[in-house]
User: Which sequence fits this backbone?
């Protein structure tokens, strides 16, 4: 983490809890302008909760109990809800994992995107509508004029996802949080959306947090990677470092679980033995210890700190030095 420059987005020891149980525990990362940071990890590791915390859109009962989120140096955790509302959509926007739930069921999809453009940028309706048509086309919505007049329930899940992506991109936010943005889409559209995100990131210097379980997407799209396990960041680094010299056993196993290129069926990351523990039963010490091939007494007992092992490469593992030598 560079201290002398203000990062575009910073999660600083972010901790999210429900009824005294933490779901996200001391998460920290920086995202620079024009950078795509992939947040990876198996299902249930707290990726979506982290994303929702950045947006301050956590579900009822779930809250940020510690740490801060900074957007260009501005502490978002201290803003009033009204101030935060002005930040959302304009400065930071999100593509949600559940597209249907994110859309208003009572409004045509055209109206909701036009409305967001109108509200945030003060564009006249007619002008806003032209922008929406263009954006719908960009995200691969055929017959955009007809689609605009439809309600979410009239559209397929994939189509709703494209509408939501259009809605998230249309105001040109400085930060985009994309939570598994292409999971429900076929590969062609998926590639198209990722290309769009990459272009937007490069052209407008958008900072992107791309949540994905697809390691192939990470290699193709991201500049940096943060690996999350059981509510904590266990490794961060440049995409090159992470792929060339992964240090955390969890990262190493994740990389080994990449589906083979000739495997047509999209696979989820579940080839590592065992499962992610439940937040109520998070183990002591290193939370990965029960599944780790290198586990020792210290791992069961003490939490490993997230240490810098190379420039811009941080790892939380008691055995990372030995593993690096062995690797
Ligand atoms: N509304 C909620 N209340 C309590 N726990 C929740 C809620 N939503 C999710 N969780 C739990 O929080 C943990 C992290 O979930 P999530 O952030 O969705 O993981 P990921 O996105 O990495 O799959 C999981 O154990 C999940 O069961
Ligand atoms: Mg999720």
Assistant:
């Amino acid at each position: 983490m560079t201290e002398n420059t203000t990062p575009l987005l910073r999660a600083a020891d972010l901790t999210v809890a429900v009824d005294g149980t933490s779901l996200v525990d001391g998460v920290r990362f920086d995202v620079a302008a024009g950078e795509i940071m992939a947040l990876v990890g198996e299902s249930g590791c707290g990726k979506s909760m982290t994303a929702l915390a950045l947006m301050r859109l956590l579900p009822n009962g779930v809250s940020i109990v510690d740490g801060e989120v900074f957007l260009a140096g501005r502490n978002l955790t201290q803003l009033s809800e009204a101030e935060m509302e002005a930040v959302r959509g304009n400065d930071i926007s999100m593509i949600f994992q559940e597209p249907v739930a994110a859309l208003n069921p009572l409004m045509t999809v055209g109206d909701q995107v036009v409305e967001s453009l109108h509200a945030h940028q003060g564009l006249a309706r007619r002008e806003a509508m032209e922008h929406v048509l263009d954006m719908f086309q960009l995200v691969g919505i055929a017959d955009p004029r007809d689609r605009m007049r439809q309600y979410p329930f009239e559209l397929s899940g994939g189509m709703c996802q494209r509408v939501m992506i259009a809605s998230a991109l249309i105001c040109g936010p400085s930060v985009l949080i994309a939570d598994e943005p292409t999971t429900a889409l076929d590969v062609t559209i998926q590639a198209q959306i990722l290309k769009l995100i990459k272009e937007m990131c490069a052209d407008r210097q958008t900072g992107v947090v791309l949540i994905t379980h697809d390691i192939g997407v990470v290699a193709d799209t991201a500049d940096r990677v943060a690996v999350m396990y059981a509510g904590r960041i266990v490794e961060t680094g440049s995409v090159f470092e992470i792929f060339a010299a992964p240090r955390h056993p969890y990262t190493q196993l994740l990389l080994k679980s990449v589906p083979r290129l000739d495997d047509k069926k999209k696979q989820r990351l579940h080839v590592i033995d065992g499962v992610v523990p439940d937040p109520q039963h998070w183990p002591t010490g290193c939370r990965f210890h029960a599944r780790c091939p290198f586990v020792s007494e210290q791992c069961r007992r003490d939490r490993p700190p997230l240490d810098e092992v190379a420039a811009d490469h941080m790892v939380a593992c008691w055995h990372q030095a030995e593993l690096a030598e062995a690797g």
